[in-house]
Design goal:
Helix content is 44%, strand content 15%. By secondary structure, the protein is of the alpha/beta class. Bound molecules: nicotinamide-adenine-dinucleotide and 2'deoxy-thymidine-5'-diphospho-alpha-D-glucose. Nicotinamide-adenine-dinucleotide is lined by residues 5-6, 8-12, 31-34, 36-37, 57-59, 79-83, 98, 102, 130, 132, 162, 185, 187-188, 194.
């Protein structure tokens, strides 16, 4: 079996669902269920004996140690993190605790477990750390896309905490020989994406008749990848990645934010037109920029393609259409995630919407 951390969040839940749709190898899913963790994402696994959910913290080394001893997983995939840049700007502490201190305790527990393994079990074990392109910092307009050897230059408390966790993972390989793999992926989108992030926020706000807040001039560039392609890349790296290596994951889909917002609006105009016949784009509102806002990310994923034969299956056009259709078909999920805690966040972040 495998142990997944953060498997009730956006990417982790997609990974667990895809994993169990493709094989019968059981998954132990350790998740703290922060505001971003949602068991509704895993509702289709109710009663499925192949999925064992455990609520807990990656920073609880004793709990992690117990789970490792009890289930003897052949791999651990670490998705658990605080993941939202804007929240890290309002309050970095949770990011330091989970992404740095939590990853450290997790690594210690795994080191103790792996140290006790022998023979084939020890040879086969893998620790796969899921990280982000944001650790590389920001690119200028003509710069080449990030490769795995790009300097690490994080600019937000979130990306700095992820970079620190990447360094710890690297050090545990170099010093203790822990069999680690790291993936650095670009912006994901797709089902179960929490509506604090750009694409789901735009869908949810558009349908609710609210403003669509675009930071600054809206010309910041992100490199978008459909979440299921990220999951397939992780599976590929887990199967065949070289120990201690970093693999960048991306879809060669660089787009300015305003283009993303306009695409979402156009799809909604087609699939769920406004009652008054006006375009959703009329709800776009330019607001104050994010402090320290990275201008451009772009991922060079050629190493993953060359070494492991991975390529994304979705184009941006097919993935974004599927995504908008998923949100339209899951009004209950959307309503439930917009809990009191979500409303508090929206109140804090978007209190003075004008630039
Ligand atoms: P998310 O915020 O949707 O989910 C994070 C999950 O981790 C939640 O279920 C939460 O409850 C859990 N969690 C948080 N702290 C925990 C702790 N201390 N112990 C156990 N569980 C804890 O995040 P996501 O977007 O699914 O991202 C997953 C991972 O992928 C993160 O490590 C993130 O840095 C990385 N990543 C995300 C993207 C993206 O575009 N979303 C891109 C590249 C990499
Ligand atoms: O690049 C990978 C990263 O992508 C992941 O590591 C992070 O976990 C994930 O949250 C994401 O980070 P971003 O900051 O790029 O994502 P976000 O959806 O918050 O913002 C995307 C872009 O849209 C960014 O340039 C900021 C802008 N934006 C965002 C929000 C929420 C807006 O213009 N308005 C908004 O209301």
């Amino acid at each position: 079996m495998i142990l997944v951390t953060g498997g009730a969040g956006f990417i982790g839940a997609n990974f667990v669902l895809d994993w169990l749709a493709q094989c019968d190898e059981p998954v132990v899913n350790l998740d703290k269920l922060t505001y971003a963790g949602n068991l509704e994402n895993l509702a289709s696994l109710k009663g499925d004996a192949r999925h064992v959910f455990v609520q807990g913290d990656i920073g609880d080394a004793e709990l992690v140690g117990r789970l490792l001893t009890q289930y003897r997983p052949r791999a651990l995939i670490n998705f658990a993190a605080e993941s939202h840049v804007d929240r890290s700007i309002h309050g970095p502490e949770d990011f330091i605790q989970t992404n740095i201190v939590g990853t450290f305790h997790l690594l210690e527990a795994v080191r103790a477990y792996w140290g006790g393994l022998q023979g084939a079990e020890r040879e086969a074990f893998r620790f796969l750390h899921v990280s982000t392109d944001e650790v590389y910092g920001s690119l200028g307009p003509g710069d080449a896309a990030f490769t795995e050897t790009h300097r690490v230059e994080p600019n937000s408390p979130y990306s700095a905490s992820k970079a620190a966790s990447d360094h710890l993972v690297r050090a545990y390989h170099h010093t203790y020989g822990l069999p680690v793999l790291t993936t650095n992926c670009s912006n994901n989108y797709g089902p179960f994406h929490f509506p604090e992030k750009l694409i789901p926020l735009m869908i949810v706000n558009a349908l609710a008749g609210k403003p669509l807040p675009v930071y600054g001039d809206g010309m910041q560039i992100r490199d978008w990848l459909y979440v299921k392609d990220h999951c397939s890349a992780i599976r590929r790296v887990l199967e065949g990645g070289r120990l201690g290596e970093i693999y960048n994951v991306g879809g060669w889909n660089e787009k300015p934010n305003i283009e993303i917002v306009n695409t979402v609006c156009a799809l909604l105009d087609e699939l769920r037109p406004r009652a008054d016949g006006q375009p959703y784009a009329s709800q776009i509102s330019y607001v104050k920029d994010r402090p320290g806002h990275d201008r451009r990310y772009a991922i060079d994923a050629r190493k993953l393609e060359r070494e492991l034969g991975w390529k994304p299956a979705e184009t941006f056009e097919s993935g974004i259409r599927k995504t908008v259709m998923w949100y339209l078909a899951h009004a209950d999920w959307v309503e439930h995630v917009q809990s009191g805690a979500y409303r508090e966040w929206v109140g804090l972040q978007y209190a003075s919407p004008s630039a």
